[in-house]
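call fold target=Protein PIN-LIKES 1-like isoform X3
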Amino acid sequence: MEFWKLFVVALMPVLKVLLITALGTFLSLDRFDILKETASKNLNTIVFFVFSPALVCSSLAETITSRSIITLWFMPLNVLLTFIIGAALGWLLVKLIKVPYHLQGLALGCCAAGNLGNLPLIIVPAVCKQKGNPFGDLDICHRNGLAYASLSMAVPKKERIVKQLKVLAEKINLKVLFAPSTIGAIVGLIIGVVPIFRKLLIVDNAVLGVLQDSIVMVGDAGIPAMTLLVGANLLKGLKGLGKQFPLIVGIIVVRFILLPVIGIGIVKGAIHIGLIHPDPLYQFLLLLQFALPPAVAMSTITQLFGASEGECSVIMLATYSCAAFSLTLWSTFFMWLVL
């Protein structure tokens, strides 16, 4: 497939994210006073404790089975590698540019934790829906893409973060931090893998199908809500963009240059020795996991608990602005690489 056509296919999902993010920024302006501090914090709370676990639970329950877990065993390892390598690069960054102590946890978290939640769930199915998508039949591509993206959410990501968020960890209740999405992932996996629960909740005409449908409805609100909050939180970063310039540049280099390059070596090496099954869409998502901007949860957590909120907004503004270009380019290259 021509490189230019792949570029257009990769661009459309990123544009969708940008449009919703821009709407969030627009709604947070003083002139409209819709997503200001109080409303934004309340929505953050709902996203963190309700929408996110519902989204994780419903996505995994519908698309993950015992067979798919066996087939896709490398993905949790791949996610773990993104955190370990990102954390190592973040530690080097902290030492190299001498990041202030109160920002070290935030810097490490932004380098280690990519947006493995809503971005893959938006980008991968959206790529499948594009005219002339390179991954074959639309329905099969969409179903498999949703399964792959959902599985990437199942890994208990926030634990790779816990030791790194030094300052945040001193100020918040870790039980509250880890409970919602982790529990949602566990419940979703149990429902998807255990046949009796799957028959009760998931299959056509399931006895308790209405319960699963309700969870899906709640979870569906999570993606637009999280993306709107990214836009609302980015506005705060405009006020202090120049204050953390070395740190911002360092995080951008780590997340958008070093990690994707390292990821290509890891994934292609795993393919070469037969650890990854030959599905281009699956390989594409594995590569994409190394090229994502920092996790939205970083912004959610800092606003929810009031720790390093301003600095996080600055970092999010810079990295997500850069991601609009880097993610499109890397997605295009990754599709070309796996086809």
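return ok
Residues 78 and 286 are 7 Å apart (CA to CA). Residues 161-173 have pLDDT under 50 and may be disordered.
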